[in-house]
Amino acid sequence: SAVISQKPSRDICQRGTSLTIQCQVDSQVTMMFWYRQQPGQSLTLIATANQGSEATYESGFVIDKFPISRPNLTFSTLTVSNMSPEDSSIYLCSVVGSGGVTSENEQFFGPGTRLTVL
Amino acid sequence: KQEVTQIPAALSVPEGENLVLNCSFTDSAIYNLQWFRQDPGKGLTSLLLIQSSQREQTSGRLNASLDKSSGRSTLYIAASQPGDSATYLCAVNNAGNMLTFGGGTRLMVKP
Questions:
Q1: How confident is the model over A44-77, as pLDDT tens digits?
Q2: pLDDT at B97
């Protein structure tokens, strides 16, 4: 399976500030995804980040609020901008396996970044 | 729009019981379905992936089945252990590898 790390693991931020979350994968992957998990809720897809193209955002999420970078095939960042308490969530990145020792199209998730906005 | 529902939302059982977690989805045109485990405050661990052409997958004490035509999947856990306590999530992949998640089942296995 793909090994995914995220930084920071958690943070407490003041409203109005921005936080950039990093996602690093131990192998080259084409597709990376960013999800949000609000307290007590399930996961919701924010955007798909493919290397060499603009991220594709889901309904309800916009680039100005959640800018994403994908500079290479092993790394991506998600920024949560102008934060408010409603942004308090766990943010997770995921990648799709390419087969081989894993099932094709199996998704793997990072450990998440727990964000609290005061 | 795909909707995924998991029943029950919470389950508490004594150690050793066999149990079944249910997942239903509204759009049967799926590419695959994946079951995950999430421990409190942690990320997701992939348990089983069932391709749309498959009926079931097994890993150790876990068995997942898929009935695509009726929009249902079940996760069977045999001989449950306290270490199985976690939230179990099913997620459906319709296309493009974008997953739609159910609300999860919080499982507590009591010693």
A1: 999 999 888 889 999 999 999 999 999 999 999 9
A2: 80
Q: Do B99 and A105 touch (CB under 8 A)?
A: no
CA B34 to chain A, closest CA, distance in angstroms equals 8
Give the Cα separation of A42 and B102 in Å (integer).
7
Interface test with A, best of B1, B2, B38, B94 (most A CBs within 10 A): B38
CA distance A109 to A4: 7
Kindly list the residues from chain A whose CB atom is less than 8 angstroms away from the CB atom of residue B44: 43, 92, 94, 109
